[in-house]
Amino acid sequence: MTTSDDAHHRAPAAAYAAAAEAAGRAPSIHNTQPWHWQVHPDRLDLFADTSRGLPGTDPDQRMLLVSCGAALHHAQVALHAQGYEVAVRPLPDPAHPEHLATLAVDGTTPVTADAVRLVQAIQLRHTDRRPNVDVPVTGEQLEELRRVAGAVGVELHRLTADQATELAVAVSHAEDAAAGEPSWQAETARWTGPDRAEGTGLPPEVIPDKRPETDVGERFFGSHGTLEVGGGHDKASTYVVLFGAEDDRAAWLRAGQALSAVWLHATLQGLAVLPYSQVIEIDATRAMMRRILSNLGYAYVVLRLGVADPDHPLPGHTPRLSFDETTTVDPAS
Ligand SMILES: Cc1cc2nc3c(=O)[nH]c(=O)nc-3n(C[C@H](O)[C@H](O)[C@H](O)COP(=O)(O)O)c2cc1C
Predict the structure, then answer these.
(1) What is the distance in A from the centroid of ligand 1 to the CA of 16?
(2) With a 6 A CB cut-off, is 304 part of the ligand 1 pocket?
(3) Which is the CATH superfamily of the domain at 4-125?
(4) Mean pLDDT score, 207-228
(5) Is any ligand 1 atom within 6 A of the Cβ of residue 130?
(6) What is the CATH class of 139-306?
(7) pLDDT, position 312
(8) Whose CA is nearest to atom 2 of ligand 1?
(9) Ligand 1, atom 31: nearest CA belongs to which residue?
(10) Residue 185: pLDDT above 60?
(11) pLDDT for position 5
(12) Ligand 1 site, residue 63, Cβ cutoff 6 A
């Protein structure tokens, strides 16, 4: 029997579809967008689409799960901004590990200005690989980012200057390892080169035109792009690690939710964000990151935070797959 309360709490399928559409803007490793959504009358299901996985560089699907977790959080933000409370069941079916989450509306909530700002941040958020200017991230900004990561069960640690130097060493090791592995290079080229599939990957406009001057070297995508990075040296950035006590699929999904929460709030704070995941992808450097955390937890992803040069807006954005390419709508919806 359907009570009037149930009817009141049930989101129209259109709200789930709008959430899946907003989630399409989520960040993902190499812009692979490795997710598939199913819109049902009573729920929204998130699946991993391993056909857009990275079997060479991401054999355990860590970064795939982190990327899908970011999309999941984007969908939560979108439903919240439409006035819905949402219950999330992560990994609801052990027999189907590719079924990553089920979202179902379980109440209504007044639409606040903060919720609207957060959903608007989805459209503004982007990866910024240009050196940041000499404006430090403030303690209050970091405190807010720590709080929003903590709200989904993930810790945020700001690296000390010494730890940032250790990070630079780890990144350099990871980059050397990647450069020496032809299959990894081929995989990177597939997502960043001219043969990348339409609507995915990194276009030249978001890849630096030369190695940016920065204390911690950036990921090299195998060739230079057209993004002008100028001559400035990035030395005021803050480096943070998202980490936690577990290192399994559920934890990586949570890490992605935290990544999205931190990134959207950082966007509203006017901060530029650049993930560093090569140090997590490679076993030896992942162990180095764990040592940097004094073995207190497992590192999920490293982020550079800073203030972008306000006089030079980013010239281009990454593309996205269309709604139909990532979403199936149950005809009963
Ligand atoms: C899990 C994850 C790992 C990432 N790792 C890196 C990285 O190591 N280096 C980098 O330059 N960008 C990295 N990115 C950023 C993606 O390339 C970026 O999100 C994607 O290309 C979409 O672009 P956008 O963020 O500007 O929308 C990562 C993103 C995610 C979600």
Answers:
(1) 25
(2) no
(3) NADH Oxidase (3.40.109.10)
(4) 94
(5) no
(6) alpha beta
(7) 79
(8) 29
(9) 28
(10) yes
(11) 42
(12) yes
